[in-house]
Amino acid sequence: MFTTRLPMPGPGPEPDRPRGYGTAVPHTPLRPSWACRADGAPWPCPHARLALKAEYDRNLAALTIYLAGLLFEAMRDLYHLNPHDGPSPQQMYQRFLGWSPFRRPIVEPPD
Fold it and tell me: Where do the segments described as Disordered lie (predicted)?
């Protein structure tokens, strides 16, 4: 039997990065509000972005995949909390992936 209904996706990756160092509170997201545990800014905060870039320095594609999975989880949580006034898809993309270092232009710029 064929159906047009897709199954509900399972849970995405656990937001456990960037890793904390020492006794400082790590800059990881606090779910379901997706605010930074350390400074309360919308996650990923500037400190988390810097730490993620440093942690994934040799594997930027993995950083993009990790952030894309968290984008899905954040959209699920934030739209569940406030379905009418939640952030737009464009805002969520810019927040999670728009700053990602693994972006290339469609056309190589001239030298």
Answer: 1-24
